[in-house]
Specification:
The chain is 47% helix and 21% strand. By secondary structure, it is α+β, with helices and mostly antiparallel strands. It has five domains: 9-162, Beta-Lactamase, CATH 3.30.450.20; 192-252; 255-354, PAS domain (Beta-Lactamase, 2-Layer Sandwich), CATH 3.30.450.20; 437-606, Heat Shock Protein 90 (2-Layer Sandwich); 619-743, Response regulator (Rossmann fold), CATH 3.40.50. The strands form five sheets. Strands 11, 12, 13, 14, 17, 18 and 19 form a seven-stranded mixed β-sheet that branches. The chain has a five-stranded antiparallel β-sheet with strand order 2-1-5-4-3. β3 (127-131) and β4 (134-143) form a beta hairpin. The longest helix is centred in the N-terminal third of the chain and has 57 residues, at 9-65. It is rod-shaped and about 210 Å long. The two termini are 115 Å apart. It catalyses: ATP + protein L-histidine = ADP + protein N-phospho-L-histidine. It is found in: Membrane. It comes from Desulfonema ishimotonii. The modification 4-aspartylphosphate is found at residue 676.
């Protein structure tokens, strides 16, 4: 049986109200019946006392004259009162004088002791008593202040008890009806109290079941129950906010880019996040069954206590470490150790960040800085070499122009010229390596670069060194054009094919393919290829492949395993790398030792059309008679340029500095300036050209330098200079530039 305290609040409220009403009604009914009983007794006693006084007054004459019949007649009047059983008149001495009995009419002969009528009776005096279900009333008969007798009335109490019984029945009926009404009304009105409480209980149950702290209890009133519901809703809001913060914290940790490990005193993982599982290759369950010593080679079961105590003392510190993956490979990580106390337990919280990419980028940065340092050195050397080589490259050309065809000196001079040109080519490689402003303004097609190479003497020479190597091409007919430098791109093609042939000492196949490719998402390889549209040059071989160590150094300057005397300067692949970067391209390499190598070069495409190739150089087309001023700080360079232009019929003057050039043009205007960009000491070519433009705003000029094109060269071209000529001079490049600029409409 369910105890009352375990009943529903609805049942309890109804029961309490009903029981309270019952007790109150019973108490009221009892009080009413008791009061009614007392009042009825008092009323009955008073009624009989009055009747006794009346009878005594009426019988006083009968007692005085001893007229018993008259007294009996007076007493017989009490028969009108049904509940009176007997009425007796006694003389002063206590002897009965006359009487009436409701059961038997007649005189009462028995002597009545009046003292037995009222307990404590002391002679003839007034009195009453309720005794054995009767009411006895005695009243003295007084005449002229003298007691002459006593009237005694005896009444039954049945009428009193009957009236009380009907009152009790009435009260019972009223109480029963009231209780029914109380139960009905309470069962209806208890909802005012139970409904908010039951709704609150249901809301609590829903919140507990679904853990949804956005639920709220409805407020039905503004009393204490309303305050209770407000307090409950406020508590839910606080829990919701705390839960949101906890969820955000938990989500942040679970989806953090850093791995998180909570480690107990014994070295076992207490908690790991998703990133920890991801970069180590374990499932969460697997990691939670492991220890820190299982993933960190530097930590063992023996030195773990030392690590724990160190972490406890230092509280927080960072370091670099290596973690062992599931496949047994090691990954570099940066770790932050934090010693924490949580709910009475101690933990080491380790946040580990995978720094593989950072280490790789640091290595690439070091390599780039190394390349930059070597390039800076190479650029300085190249500039000086260009000045030295000018005489070796340019003077033979001037000598050959005046030399008879059958001269015995012609062949030696040609050899001197060819050697100078080879040296100049190496200088250009060094300038490319320095990445000093390779011009990529020409519209070219990679197919033409490949085709031109296979028609060159370099290709014939390569075949002679590697007769067992086969060459195969697969060039896309719809290959898109690119913006680039034909000279550097041709050298890139030559270096890649030469490298491929060198990788097959026993023979094999070199395949060269071109294709269009659209990259819709970054491709991770040797380089990360960004989204875009590219013309791709693939050069693959079936040779010995490239080892991991060699792959790391393949683009370093002067690193080579080729045979010296053929193409072993060590700059070939460095030039490929520098040229590719100058063309804003990317490279990817696929190789394996013994399985060959494939280089894929990605060049951004352009929609511009190819320009028509110029016809064969004809010297006579570039003659003239205009006045030209050559400005160069190196005497040999001034002489070479002047002699070449004089040979073509021009009126040439020369000065060794920019300041002197300014003073010259003030006095004698010229048709064209040939300006060296770098002149020391004094102002350079750009500053000189600016000042001359202040004097002659339409002054024409060409820029010459032993360096590749720089920002200052491009600024001079923007100001109006017509062309940029590289040193060492050749007759073709200088006279073309001069004639084109003189013919150009200002």
């Amino acid at each position: 049986m369910i105890k009352f305290k375990d009943k529903s609040i609805k049942y309890k409220l109804t029961a309490i109200i009903t029981m309270t009403s019952t007790i109150a009604l019973l108490f009221a009914s009892s009080a009413f019946l008791i009061a009614e009983f007392a009042l009825s007794r008092r009323s009955m006693e008073k009624e009989l006392s009055i009747l006794a006084e009346v009878i005594g007054t009426n019988c006083s004459a009968a007692l005085l004259f001893d007229d018993r019949d008259s007294a009996v007649e007076t007493l017989s009047a009490v028969k009108a009162v049904p509940h009176i059983i007997s009425a007796t008149v006694y003389k002063k001495d206590g002897r009965p004088f006359a009487g009436y009995n409701a059961v038997r009419t007649g005189h009462t002969i028995a002597r009545v002791d009046l003292r037995s009528v009222e307990p404590g009776y002391r002679g003839p005096e007034n009195g009453y008593r309720f005794y054995n279900g009767y009411l006895d009333v005695c009243r003295e008969i007084v005449l002229d202040s003298e007691i002459i007798g006593v009237v005694h009335l005896k009444s039954g109490l049945k009428e009193l008890y009957a009236r009380l019984m009907w009152h009790g029945i009435f009260c019972g009926i009223i109480t029963s009806v009231s209780l029914i009404l109380a139960y009905f009304i309470s069962s209806r009105l208890q909802g005012m109290f139970s409904k908010p409480i039951l709704h609150l209980a249901r809301t609590m149950g829903e919140v507990s079941a679904v853990r949804d702290y956005t639920l709220r209890a409805n407020k039905f009133c503004d009393d204490e129950l309303g305050d209770l519901i407000d307090g409950f809703n406020d508590m839910l809001e606080q829990i919701r906010q705390r839960d949101e913060k906890l969820k955000l914290t938990q989500f942040s940790i679970e989806h953090s880019g850093d791995a998180a490990f909570w480690i107990s005193r014994g070295g076992r993982f207490f908690y790991v996040n998703n990133e920890a599982c991801s970069y180590l290759g374990y499932s969460c369950e697997e990691l939670l069954a492991m220890r820190m010593a299982d993933i960190d080679p530097e930590i063992t079961e023996k030195n773990w206590p030392v690590f724990w105590e160190t972490s406890k003392q230092r509280k927080s510190h960072t370091a670099e470490a290596r973690h062992r993956r599931k496949d047994n490979s090691l990954v570099p990580v940066e770790i932050a150790n934090n010693f924490l106390e949580f709910q009475g337990n101690e933990y080491v919280c380790v946040f580990a960040r995978n720094i593989e990419d950072r280490k790789r980028m640091e290595a690439q940065l070091q390599k780039a800085e190394k390349m930059e340092a070597i390039g800076t050195l190479a650029a300085g050397v190249a500039h000086d070499l260009n000045n030295i080589l000018s005489g070796v490259v340019s003077y033979p050309e001037l000598l050959l122009m005046d030399m008879p065809e059958d001269s015995i000196f012609k062949e030696p001079i040609l050899k001197i010229q060819k050697s100078g040109q080879k040296a100049a080519a190496i200088v250009q490689d060094m300038l490319t390596l320095a990445r000093r402003g390779v011009a990529i303004a020409d519209i070219v097609n990679l197919n033409d670069m490949v085709s031109d190479y296979f028609r060159s003497t370099e290709y014939e020479k390569l075949k002679s060194f590697h007769p067992k190597v086969r060459f195969k091409t697969d060039l896309a007919e719809d290959l898109l054009n690119i913006s680039g430098s034909p000279v550097h791109l041709s050298k890139t093609v030559m270096n890649l094919i030469s490298n491929a042939a060198e990788a097959m000492p026993a023979g094999g196949e070199v395949s060269i393919r071109t294709a269009n490719r659209y990259v819709d998402h970054p491709i991770s390889g040797y380089d990360t290829v960004s989204e875009g549209e590219y013309a791709v040059l693939n050069v693959a071989d079936t040779g010995i492949g490239i080892s991991v160590d060699d792959l790391e150094k393949i683009f370093e300057p002067f690193y080579t395993k080729k045979v010296m005397g053929r193409s072993g300067t060590g700059l070939g692949m460095s030039v490929v790398w520098a040229t590719l970067k100058d063309h804003r391209g990317y490279i990817d390499i696929h190789t394996a030792e013994g399985a060959g190598t494939q280089f894929a070069l990605y060049f951004p495409v352009t929609r511009q059309a190819l320009e028509k190739r110029e016809a064969r150089f004809v010297l006579e087309r570039f003659t003239g008679c205009e006045k030209i001023l050559v400005v160069d700080d190196v005497r040999v360079q001034r002489e070479i340029a002047s002699r070449m232009l004089i040979k073509m019929g021009y009126d040439v003057r020369s000065v060794p500095s920019g300041e002197m050039a300014i003073e010259y043009v003030k006095e004698a205007p010229v048709d064209l300036l040939v300006l060296d960009m770098i002149m020391e000491p004094g102002i350079d070519g750009l500053a000189t050209y600016r000042r001359i433009l202040d004097i002659w705003p339409r002054q024409k000029a060409i820029i010459a330098s032993g360096f590749s094109e720089t920002d200052r060269v491009r600024e001079a071209l923007r100001l109006g200079a017509g062309a940029y000529v590289k040193k060492p001079y050749t007759l073709e490049n200088i006279v073309k530039a001069v004639r084109y600029e003189l013919d150009r409409q200002a």
